[in-house]
Amino acid sequence: MSANEDQESCCKDLKMSPMRWDFPVELCCRPMAFVTLTGLDVTFNAIHRAIWDAFCVNRRADRVPISFKVLPGDHEYPKCRSKRTSYEWYIPKGILKTGWMNKHLNLVPALVVVFYELDWDEPQWKEKLLECATRVEIVRQSLQGRNTKVAVVLIQKKTPLPPGEDVIASERAAALCNACDLSGKSLFVLPHTDHLVGYIIRLENAFYEHAQTYYYAEIRRVKSHKEFLNKTTHQLLFVRHQFKIAFFSELKQDTQNALKNYRTAYNLVHELRSHETNMLEIKTMAGFINYKICRLCFQHNTPLDAIAQFRKHIDICKKKIGSAELSFEHTAWMSKQFQAFGDLFDEAIKLGLTAIQTQNPGFYYQQAAYYAQERKQLASQLCNHDPSITYPSPDPLETTMGVLDFYGQRPWRQGILSFDLSDPDKEKAGILALQLKEKDILHSELIITLLSNAVAQFKKYKCPRMKSHLMVQMGEEYYYAKDYTKALKLLDYVMCDYRSERWWTLLTSILATALKCSYLMAHLKDYMTYSLELLGRASTLTGDQKSRIEKNLIKVLMNESPDPEPGCDASVVKTAQKLWADRVSLAGNNIFTIEVQDFVPFVQCKAKFLSPSFHVDVPVQFSVYLKADCPHPIRFSKLCVGFNNQEYNQFCIVEEAYQSGDILEQSSQGTVCLVPGKTRKFTFKFVAKTEDVGKKIEITSVDLVLGSETGRCMILNWRGGGGDAASPQEALQAARSFKRRPKLPENEVCWDSVTIQASTMIISRVPKISVQLRHEPPALTNEMYCLFVTVESQEKTVIKDVKLTAGLKPGQDANLTQKTHVTLNGREICDDSHPALLTDIPIGDLQPGEKIEKAIYTRCATVGTRIFLVYVCYLVNTTVEDNEIICKCHKDETVTIETVFPFDVAVKFVSAKFEHLDRVYADIPFLLMTDILSASPWALTIEASQLLLADTTIAVDQLESHVEKVVLQTGESASECFCLQCPPISTGQGGVAIGRYVISWKRTSTAESLPVITTVTTLPHVIVESIPLHVRADLPSFGRVRESLPVKYYLQNKTSLVQDIDIAVEPSDAFMFSGLKQIRLRILPGTEQEMLYNFYPLMAGYQQLPSLNINVLRFPNFTNQLLRRFIPTHIFVKPQGRQANDASIEAA
Amino acid sequence: MAVCVAVIAKENYPLYIRSIPTENELKFHYTVHTSLDVVDEKISAMGKALVDQRELYLGLLYPTEDYKVYGYVTNSKVKFVMVVDSSNTALRDNEIRSMFRKLHNSYTDVMCNPFYNPGDPIQSRAFDNMVTSMMMQVC
To answer: What does DSSP assign to residue A670?
Structure first.
């Protein structure tokens, strides 16, 4: 906000000296009771000094409102005139004497205090008493005729005793009062001890009471005059007395009554008979009283009353102009009224009042400024006397005392009440004197001060536009005051507000003033800037005015002086012309670059790339469209475009050398001539650099050079692709419009239809190769998945430096990168050290039509979807616009490949009876069955399988693979079975590891050379349980009806204890049997008991064997049920064969 | 009656502005422009009120020594500003309201014209005549 600060500093330069129209200080101050202190020697006596300081230093707001003054004891107070006993013959000469307020504020005290050093135990009491009485007497003498009170303060060294205890004190006090003719209430004692300030506060409170009594008496005195007055001759006195009562009330701090009396006074002042001769006096007094009323209203926190009073005051007084020849006095007075009210309002706000947007001091300052402007105007009309007229002598404004007797009277006829002018010549001389005095007033300073006050207020109350308006007025006032630099500063600052809000009329008016300022200062760049905007389409000037400005601008460009702006003073024009002449002769920097983006210049510019992207082997094309809005055709000398890559700048220049005199020549054929209203199009073409492939080319600037470098030259500079402050909105409106575009000849363009395109992408040349991928999806986990890439050149020339990049496309899940590996070598399984993306695999050169194939192997360690990228790049030489360039082309292909498990391995544990086991028993063999179920859509060859047992398991027989070289089609499965046994384990272990199952496999279709993949499956854990007894049966695989069937049962004690066992065989319908039917056995630890039975089947078929019930007495939990699982329950019994065939059956 | 009538676009640029020819036209432009401060403030204060309770008439914007400035805002935030001579005390609030309503109706007619492009300066003769009648009325 530097401009803003400048603007503020502009205002501060102006210092206001006290003016004729300023209110007197005694009116504006807050009246306080006046008390004088005598007998204090504040210069040489430290005690007195301390007392005085306690009275007046650091008075806080809560102390009583008294104004103190130290005076010598023999000070002469103003003489009191003898009191009038009758008003019958008295004719007042004016309303209020100029000295009256000051007299009661600062000269005539309400109370005189006599300080005297005297202790009660003073040895020379008599003498001191007399001296004190004398001092009081002297004061009384001086105040003869006044009601002023007198009080005595005794300064004592000792702290007084409580009242009544000091007999001498009360005695001597009474004597002192008597001697000085004082009442007891007017005698005070001031011990100067530690609590001085406390005593002083009590003292001044007592003084304050005395003062109030005095002022009350004064009010009564003035009121008592009233009854003697009559309405015909004493009209002025009514006002005077009312004012005095109100003023005394204020001194008494009775503001309510003061306000009431001022209001009465105000009404009375307007009841006075008014005439041109006393108008000023009436207005002056009305202004004073109004000021007092408003001030008190604000003080009483009734701002609306204040505003209402002020409005009433203004409405009444607005029309009371008085003498027409001195009408500037009226406007000065009006201005002062508004300014004073604004000050009061502002002061009230500082004390806590809240103002609003539509009611704030700013409005009053603004109005004050308005009247000040009017005053200036009237003054310029009324005071433009011929220089030969001299100031009248003797000076009619001279008064004997140097001051007026009464407020608002004419110095040359003071105290004359008659409305008739007794001395017309004197009157004329007086008026002339006033007019000549007015001539010397610096009106602009007054106006600017008021405006800047208003600006500060409106800034506070959220009125940015009002602020701008006032700043414009300030700028104009500076222009009138011939301070063009400050004027321009202010105007420049607000211009952009009006521009951005698109108030063209206002902008034009500001620009016109600014142009005048820059002309008068011969500021070339400013002059050009304002001219080019005034010629622009946003300017509301008429064609003639524009034409004049354009001609001037051309003159400036030809290094000549422009014609003066109309409406400028002849005298200032002369100075300006001299300045311009100096400029012409002065060789200096004659090139002016003007950034027009933020204005509305008279040349519009739009730059447009023909396409948002260009291939590098195609020339980049763009057009610059220019349109002039000025009234006459204009020639430019150069058009150039700047890019972010400055190497292109050289290709985009339009230039035509011409004589500087030709600038106005109306030849429209010239390439560099802009015809008003016509859109000119300049097309450029250049070849992009190969380094810029993949980059953006941006237009960073468009420069239009007007004038020549030999004369003066103005460079209109647009940032980016043109456009200005008004163009975005215009483009928007044009886009909304349904209007049909006017039909234009072939080679012309409709301006609105052109859009700015300031940047374009350079993209690589279209590749002429084919990239084909051959593979067999899906990929199987961990296999070396083969991807054949075939690259075929379709270029017409050799392509060089062909490089292939293949692998996992970057930007996918990070986990995929770690679980995917790419290699060119398919012979061995690649490990984690291989990358996920193989970059820049050199392929070499390819002749036209040549084809090359590459195999890429990838290993995917996890299932899921992956996107693979195959990217081929190469270099090729091409010719663009006769330029040989090496183009880098590339083509990429992506492919999505799913990875799946090749097969599922299922494992289960079964008993020797092929019954499912959820646990195995220690030392008892069981079977492990594996199932390999192919999930691959392609045939798989199982190369080998291997069971790697853990230490906790032992194989019962040879472990050999049964699935070697087995080919599995989709959905097929291969199973294996291994007999295993677990040794007993220490208790507490949940399960034991069996080991791992390793399958080596590959795709059936792949070449021999490709490695075999091994997949390891960890076998599940199994719970191993120990049993006390194991039963094993030994029986033939089948029986035959009525043939003996020997069955042996082996009972094995697995414990280290001797086991008692009950065995019973339950009979079965299908068998007869021999053997021990029920027995109790005892088996020694670790031994086996053999039981032999001979079964004799009676029926054919699948028959239930007679069941063996075993009861282990030591282990009641170990049930028969469990034991039965180890022995067969059924057997197949064949029927009895026919005799003839017996042999054959036996053979079977 | 009215000494100046203005129609201001939503973006605060003038769509139409006409003042009595006898006075300084520029002065009215400034008056209308500065009054937008108050209009903006009133609209932002109104934003909090319910939409359907919204009063279009903004009332007296601010009094100057010589003129009174009244405002009115349509639902699409197009503003009407009318400047009335302060001395014309006969003019009641109700009459101002009805004048604004008339202005709004006429503006609606302008908008209904298919050849009018919203946002362009108003150049309708009917609208012009209506404004003229407002400025002629009574005095």
So the answer is: S
- CA angle, residues A830, A835, A837, in degrees to nearest 5: 120
Task: Grade residue A5 by pLDDT with cuts at 50, 70 and 90.
Answer: very low
Closest-CA distance, B104 to chain A, in angstroms, reads 22
The rounded distance, in Å, linking the Cα atoms of A610 and A618 is 12
Contact present, A1131 and A1035 (Cβ < 8 Å): yes
Q: Which of A72-86, A531-545, A955-969, A1079-1093 has the highest mean pLDDT?
A: A531-545
CA distance A370 to B128: 32
How many angstroms separate the CA of residue B25 from the nearest CA in chain A? 10
Tell me the whole-structure pTM to 2 decimals.
0.74
Top mean-pLDDT range of A69-83, A536-550, A967-981: A536-550
Please check whether residue A1063 is in contact with residue A1078, taking contact to mean a CB–CB distance below 8 angstroms: yes
Contact call for A736 and B30, based on CB within 8 A: no
Nearest CB to A469; choose among B17, B33, B114: B33
Alpha carbon of A248: minimum distance to chain B alpha carbons (Å): 35
Q: Is the pLDDT at A34 greater than 90, yes or no?
A: yes
Say if CB A881 and CB A619 are below 8 A apart. yes
CA distance B65 to B46: 27
pLDDT of residue A343: 95
What share of chain A in percent tops pLDDT 70? 95
The predicted structure's pLDDT at residue A657: 56
Q: How far is B68 from chain A (nearest CA, A)?
A: 12
Q: Which residue of A has its CA nearest to B30?
A: A469
pLDDT digits (tens, 9 = 90+) for A576-587: 999 898 888 776
Domain boundaries defined on chain B:
2-136
Tell me what pLDDT residue A635 has.
84
Band (pLDDT 50/70/90 cuts) for residue A1144 is: low
Of residues A36 and A656, more confidence is placed in A36
Inter-chain touch B12–A501, beta carbons under 8 Å:
yes
Distance CA A816, CA A863 (A): 10
Of A596, A656, A654, give the one whose Cα is nearest residue A628: A596
What does the pLDDT average to over A868-889? 87
Any A CB within 8 A of B34 CB: yes
B93 and B72 Cβ atoms separated by less than 8 Å: no
Q: Is the peptide bond before A745 cis (omega within 30 degrees of 0)?
A: no
Three-class SS of residue A682?
Answer: strand
Third-level CATH fold of B2-136? Beta-Lactamase (3.30.450)
Residue-by-residue DSSP string for A304-360: HHHHHHHHHHHHHHTT----GGGHHHHHHHHHHHHHHHHHHHHHHHHTT---BTTBS
Give the nearest chain A residue to B66 (CA atoms).
A367
A930: left (phi over 0), alpha (psi -120 to 50) or beta: beta
Supply the ipTM of this predicted assembly: 0.94
Domains of chain A: 33-226 (3.40.50.2300), 253-486 (no CATH), 502-762 (2.60.40.10), 769-892 (2.60.40.10), 903-1025 (2.60.40.10), 1029-1134 (2.60.40.10)
Question: pLDDT at position A370, please?
Answer: 93
Nearest to B33 among A506, A733, A736 (CB): A506
Contact A633, A668 (CB under 8 A): yes
pLDDT, tens digit, 9 for 90 and up, residues B14-24: 999 998 877 78
Whether chain A has a CB inside 8 Å of the CB on B112: the answer is: no
CB distance from B118 to chain A under 8 Å? yes
**DSSP annotation string for B70-93:** EEEE-TT--EEEEEEETT-TT--H
Rounded Cα distance, B65 and B84, in Å: 11
- Choose from B17, B18, B25, B34 for mutation: most chain A CBs within 10 A: B34
